Amino acid sequence: MNRLLAEKALTHFLLEDIGERDASSVIFNERDTGTAIVRSKADGVVAGLQIFEWGYRLLDPAIAVEKLKQDGDQVSPGEPLVRITGDVAQILAGERVFLNLVQRMSAIATLTRHCVDTLNSRHTRIVDTRKTTPGLRMFEKYAVRAGGGSNHRNGLYDAVMLKDNHIAAAGSITEAVKKVRAAHGHMMMVEVEVETEQQLAEAITAAPDAIMFDNQTPDTMRRWVKLVPAPIRTEASGGIDLACLEDYRDTGVDVISIGALTHSVSNLDMTMNLSVSQKEEITR
After folding, report:
1. Are 109 and 46 in contact (CB under 8 A)?
2. Catalytic: 181?
3. Annotation says 197 is catalytic
4. Is 279 a catalytic residue?
5. Buried-exposed string 103-137: b where 16+ CB fall within 10 A, e elsewhere
């Protein structure tokens, strides 16, 4: 992840939650220090643990954060993930924001790992889509990588994807590819979505960098892959999830894009337990 962009986002998230002050922190004095341990409450793959490092540095540079696990590690309930030591009020001020983000990132990493393991292919890669949470795309796409997947394009700006509406507006696949090739330099990747064999034939002639088979059966994909020249990459997309992923294992496509990686996950549950110096333990 880009640390500067991450810290900018974290600053916004903290301001949203803390506002002018943490009204609950009046029970502490300036000398109250403690140690907090973040633990997993479920089986899964962790991602985003550096959020605690970067986030607490924004709140109080004196807070020490020690990662006890690494992103991509498989964890079990009760396993400690991070140790945080410092000012109690500041630790609690960042607790919920950082936990929320890391729990979501870990859920995405966990689902991605399940998909990669289920597909079990040495050729075909699992990739994400643009179906991400607004404002969280960088974090969510990083989580996919932590889970063993790969990223599709980041946004509308870094690659061309010509879908049905683009093709309809341009008049044909041929014309759409021609126009984007003329408008962009040689470094801009162009992908075309196809839904019929006639469209596939036209796309092959237009010679994009990649062709997406949209909402096709595994049998159709196996047949279509054989028609596509080697320099053109192939992608399977549409209606593919963990339940049916094994059916696509031997289709021969280069990548399978799964929107569910980022739009259909439930947070991986975690907890923070805080021990305050000279005081009894507070459990969150």
Report:
1. yes
2. no
3. no
4. no
5. bbbbbbbbbbbbbbeebebeebbbbbbbebeeebb
Known catalytic membership, residue 163: yes
What span, in angstroms and rounded, lies between the C-alpha atoms of 75 and 139?
A: 20
Q: Is 16 a catalytic residue?
A: no
Low-confidence winner among 29-38, 102-111, 168-177, 181-190 (lowest mean pLDDT): 29-38
Catalytic, out of 96, 125, 181, 249: 96
pLDDT tens by residue, 41-87 = 999 999 999 999 999 999 999 999 999 999 999 999 999 999 999 99
Instruction: Provide the whole-model pTM.
Output: 0.94
Residue in this structure with the two tokens 């979501």, named with its chain if needed: 104
Which candidate in 67, 130, 163, 222 is catalytic?
163
pLDDT band at 280 (very low <50, low <70, confident <90, very high): very low
What are the chain's domains? 3-113+266-283 (3.90.1170.20), 116-263 (3.20.20.70)
